[in-house]
What does this fold into?
Amino acid sequence: MIGTLRGVLSAKAPPQLVVEVGGVGYELEAPMSTFYTLPAIGGELRLLTHLVVREDAHVLYGFATEDERRLFRSLLRVSGVGPKLALAILSGSSVDAFAQCVEAQDAGALTRIPGIGRKTAERLLVEMKDRLRGIAGGLDDAARVGHGGGARAEALSALVALGYRPQEATRLLQAVAADAATTEELIRGALQNAAREG
It folds into this structure.
């Protein structure tokens, strides 16, 4: 089993990328959350990996963080969810945002991810509730982003809708003062943080 790859990024075209390690080019598929963290072509990187063996192919999947890989592996255990759909979920939602959807039992938010219908969303909510507790970035992390989980989840969704990457939106929200309670206050605080950084 290949657990990690450290090498040079030689090609990237979502969802595929190629990492050259010791003269061998490894083809991987990765979620958009990982693509956002990739260096330019020719840059060095390290990815956590998961190998899926099928009758017709061996497909290697790459992840920027352990949380992403753990969520991917947990999603594969849900009936009706294969690697392609698991990648779509990680591309359409950060680990924290997905955990918040499951905690809030928000099927509507999950159906906004391409490829997820109502039945699949409801199955995910039921089957992932207990599994997320074993993921470092799961429910505990979602709660650690701050109190007022519903408001935080709404603010995160709004920031993503405004064009911020899920990881960036989560980081901006984490920097908002703990006394910000409403969705509007959280969004305002996150945008002010972004303006200061810019």
